Amino acid sequence: SAVISQKPSRDICQRGTSLTIQCQVDSQVTMMFWYRQQPGQSLTLIATANQGSEATYESGFVIDKFPISRPNLTFSTLTVSNMSPEDSSIYLCSVAYPGNRYEQYFGPGTRLTVT
Amino acid sequence: AQTVTQSQPEMSVQEAETVTLSCTYDTSENNYYLFWYKQPPSRQMILVIRQEAYKQQNATENRFSVNFQKAAKSFSLKISDSQLGDTAMYFCAFMNRASGTYKYIFGTGTRLKVLA
């Protein structure tokens, strides 16, 4: 298994500003994902951030709005840029291990409120 | 397109009883993985159980077991001897490695409440 931490755990931001969310893993991992989740709803994949390659974004998500960095095998950041109230959500990072039957592990999430 | 359907938005079960959560999926792939995740009210998502599609034997993890019906594309979760701590959202998820991508697709979730 993996221990994943996210910072901040929650934040309240004004519209038009940007927030960078950090994801730290306690072991080296290639596959990392960023999701968005509305409270009580399912997960929506924002992008896949594998180390050594550019992040791959899902339909409806663009790099200018959600830039991602993956400088090494234990760390990643997701920035939510030029925020609007529609960006209020929970943002989750996760990792997966191909060598462990693709089990996916999740961070505790970052609860973002945009006012 | 690959989809995962959980047709039960909410369920409840008495403590110590057994409950089954349903999940169906749609894919044309033959080699894939299926998972059940639990998300308690505290929010952290936890892996409950996984199943490789090439394995016919149903996976079990203590009180949790699955009924994997590949031909029917069905992957239900059975929770035996339900405990109050089982109260959570449960998500069914599908993953395959088609075209070298690794994408996990989640269902809409089932909110399970265990009653004392």
Task: Supply database-style keywords.
heterodimer; A: 115 residues; mainly beta; Immunoglobulin-like; seven-stranded mixed beta sheet; four-stranded antiparallel beta sheet; 51% strand; B: 116 residues; six-stranded mixed beta sheet
Task: Provide an overview of this structure.
- The complex is a heterodimer of chains A (115) and B (116).
- By secondary structure, chain A is mainly β.
- Helix content of chain A is 0%, strand content 51%.
- Chain A has one domain: Immunoglobulins (Immunoglobulin-like, Sandwich).
- Chain A has strands spanning 4-7, 10-13, 19-25, 31-37, 43-48, 56-57, 68-72, 75-80, 89-97, 103-106, 110-114.
- Chain A is globular and about 40 Å long.
- The mean pLDDT of chain A is 92.
- The mean pLDDT of chain B is 92.
- Chain B is mainly beta.
- Helices cover 0% and strands 53% of the residues of chain B.
- In chain B, strand 7 and strand 8 (64-69) form a beta hairpin.
- Chain A binds chain B through residues 31, 33, 40-43, 45, 48, 56, 90, 92, 94, 96, 98, 101-109, and chain B through 33, 35, 37, 43-47, 50, 52, 89, 91, 93, 95, 101-104, 106-109, 111.
Question: How do you describe this structure in short?
Answer:
The complex is a heterodimer of chains A (115) and B (116). Chain A has strands spanning 4-7, 10-13, 19-25, 31-37, 43-48, 56-57, 68-72, 75-80, 89-97, 103-106, 110-114.
CATH class assignment of chain A: Mainly Beta
The radius of gyration over CA of chain A amounts to: 13 Å
CATH homologous superfamily of chain B, by name? Immunoglobulins
Distance between the termini of chain A: 36 Å
Question: Secondary-structure map with pairings?
Answer:
The complex is a heterodimer of chains A (115) and B (116).
Chain A: E1 4-7, E2 10-13, E3 19-25, E4 31-37, E5 43-48, E6 56-57, E7 68-72, E8 75-80, E9 89-97, E10 103-106, E11 110-114
Parallel strand pairs in A: 2-11
Antiparallel strand pairs in A: 1-3, 3-8, 4-5, 4-9, 5-6, 7-8, 9-10, 9-11
Chain B: E1 3-5, E2 10-14, E3 19-21, E4 24-26, E5 32-39, E6 46-52, E7 60-61, E8 64-69, E9 74-79, E10 88-96, E11 103-106, E12 110-115
